[in-house]
Design brief:
Helix content is 43%, strand content 29%. It has 116 residues and is an alpha/beta fold. It contains four helices and five strands, in the order ββαβαβαβα.
Length: 116
């Protein structure tokens, strides 16, 4: 799994996750999110466009991201959820639970509207 983080103006974190998120590496995303949420309220966009595979530990990390964001009152969106990743999320009945948007652009518009 590769994780690419960048700050997008105005004060929005964009994290692109690619490859396979499984029990061997999902903790890396969790650690990054903990750092990003530490004392900050910047919206977070998770771009899952290039994520090809996710197992139960990866789903657990997505749940962690969403619940931590909610507790901390940090807006979060999951963009480009498709293919096998979407199927796994559907099977776990989390599709309606997660804040899923079609694209990073849509998430960015929501994030900037939330800030303004």
């Amino acid at each position: 799994m590769d994780i690419n983080h960048k700050r997008v103006k105005p004060g929005v974190n964009l994290v692109a996750v690619s490859g396979e998120m499984d029990m061997y590496n999902s903790h890396e995303l969790k650690q990054l999110v903990v750092r990003l949420f530490d004392g900050r309220k910047d919206p977070l966009i998770l771009d899952l466009n290039q994520l090809k595979y996710i197992d139960s530990s990866g789903v657990s990390v997505l749940i962690f991201v969403f619940t931590q964001a909610k507790k901390s009152q940090i807006p979060v969106w999951f963009a480009h959820v498709h293919g096998t990743v979407r199927k796994v999320i559907e099977l776990t009945s989390l599709l309606r639970f997660f804040p899923i948007v079609e694209s990073v652009e849509e998430a960015y518009q929501k994030a900037t509207a939330h800030q303004g």
